[in-house]
Amino acid sequence: MKRILTLAMVSILSTSCMAQSHPGAEEFAARAAKEYGLDASEVVELLEGARFKQSIVDAMTRPAEAKPWHEYRKIFLTDKRIDGGVEFWEDNAALIAQASEEYGVDPEVIVAIIGVETFYGGNIGGYRVLDALATLSFHYPSSIRDRSDFFSKELMQFLLLGGEEDLPLSEVKGSYAGAMGLGQFMPSSYREYAVDLDGDGRRDLWSSLADVIGSVANYLHRHGWQAGEPVTSRALVASSADMDLVSRSNLKPERTLADLAEKGFTQQDGVALDTPAAVTRLAEASGDSHWLTYNNFYVVTRYNRSPLYAMAVYDLSQAILEAYGS
Description:
It is built from 14 helices and 8 strands. It has helices at 25-36, 40-48, 54-60, 69-76, 79-91, 93-103, 107-118, 129-138, 148-165, 187-193, 209-222, 257-262, 295-303, 307-324, and strands spanning 127-128, 173-174, 232-234, 236-237, 255-256, 265-266, 276-284, 287-293. β7 (276-284) and β8 form a beta hairpin.
């Protein structure tokens, strides 16, 4: 593998007074050398240029997904975002149709993912990915949920991605969590699921709308999206329903609708009773609503684990589809 960090070196990194130490950085560099053949001294030099950002830590403690559904929904289900989705679809109809057909993913869902993630490219994030991943790898071991190992792995993937896609690692911008491009792919997802749909030899999730659209479609395809199949149905809940089946985290559909109906949760959408489903709840302004969620809903939660996110994508996709066809 080429020396990936050469592209990342800028003059500011060689100024010793700007170097910043990070606990565990040298061990990380040694692992990068041992496991991936990277130059440990170059990794250390790159990390010395990474800045700890308190604002990143603060953002991690107050994610939008912590809001109740009725507040979260308002962020994404707006006329501006729906109209923006219609415009994005119209402007890129051929690419969206190509990706939809090639990967077997409904076009409105591809559009909605990009709309929820970055408002169709209007907000791809203003943090250096290097700063985000270094901060979360070395300075954010939360006592509630320690994800430093996850972000350390993503930092390693970011270094490898730099060599594969010729990225200037010290300059790449993204979200406070290190997600990149119009589809907000984490480095490991970028390496695994991004595609070169425009055939120019690079997987560019910033400037190539073909690659962005194709990569989002491929991500959903690889996780099992089934085109034309249902996503979710509002559940009618019997007074005797087994509420232990309601989950906000385990949304893998493992019980059939027939089984769930016996447990007190029924749907009115005419979905076949042998369809696997799970049950979740959302906090409405007037109380909880309950939903039967299917395979495609679960697939969207592979993009973001929150059921709020998946429901926002679904609702936005349906609003865009209705407006696009009108």
